[in-house]
Amino acid sequence: MDSNRPSFTRRGLLAGLVAAPMLVTASRTAVGDAAAEPTHAAAAEGSRLAPDALKDAKGTKLVMLGTGGGPVPGRRRNMTSHVMLSGGAAYVLDCGLGVTNQFARTGIPFNAVRSVFITHHHPDHNVEYGPLLLIGWVQGMLPSVRAFGPPPLKQMTEDYLRSVKATIDFWSEDLKMKALGMIGVQEVSVAGPVTESEGLKVTAAVVEHPPVHPALGYRFDFADRSIVFSGDTAPVEVLARLAKGADVLVHEAMYVPAVEAYVRGQIARGRPVSFDAWMAHMKADHSPVEDVGRIAQEAGVKTLVLSHLTPAIDTLLDDTWRAEAAKHFKGEIIVAQDMLVV
Length: 342
Hints:
The structure is a single chain. The chain has 11 helices and 14 strands. With 342 residues, the protein is α/β, with parallel strands linked by helices. It has a 7-stranded mixed beta sheet. Strands 7-8-9-10-11-12-13 form a 7-stranded mixed beta sheet. Helix 10 (289-299) packs across helix 11 (318-325). The longest helix has 22 residues, at 10-31. The chain is globular. It starts with 9 loop residues before the first helix and ends with a strand.
């Protein structure tokens, strides 16, 4: 055997694999990640993009990890997900495809995550919930992390962890890590208080997203600011009440003319769908951006963030979205971009 040849062991290789993402995250945090910068609109707000905007940040910050509506892969906008950072603690809301990578790109350590919240059980909001827990565990997420969301969230968590038990056992045995076990899950079925701890109070509202029930909106009252999320919903009065006087309202937004054009295009390409049925579904389940402005104005929020954009296509200018909301809302309007810090 050549004594000068490097010695590789399976355990050493695995240890390197575990450490590598942490090193990449640290490097990106130090120098910034050019790939995270959107190609238009918010690029002018470079100082507000993660990870740079989180360096030495004071107060509670919201990072838009994914801002596209619907379970459509391959777009510039990731599926819906967010993280709030307050006092060194991180709170994830919704886990669409891409949430784990997007979270890592912020530079926030995985051991900062305290809770994960799910608004409803559609794939663009929950498909990466389980993988976030698994990869987060490998990257140092604390076993005390908790999850909140509609039923059957507890069963879903148990089923996912059971499905990856072999993977968990492999990592824990080979690297002498404590195995990832069942986390604390609190199912939320009705409106009202969800959880409260020092410096944070979370409240839920039941919104309209048929046939999904319950579908939830959430309000996070931190010591220094309040942030409200609509989840997926038709325009409803309950959101105006939930968001009353809030600093930030993150509301899903649909631009109906573009949706109609998109559906007609799908039909022209041979997709066997009914235009009338598709549009009836969209109007029953989602909020035209003009109505979003009306809700924000009634609630008296300071800042309206338009997100879960439907359709999430780059040809729609930010000014188009903003102008519709501004018909009723007179406060600050932000058209969300992935990695934008609010």
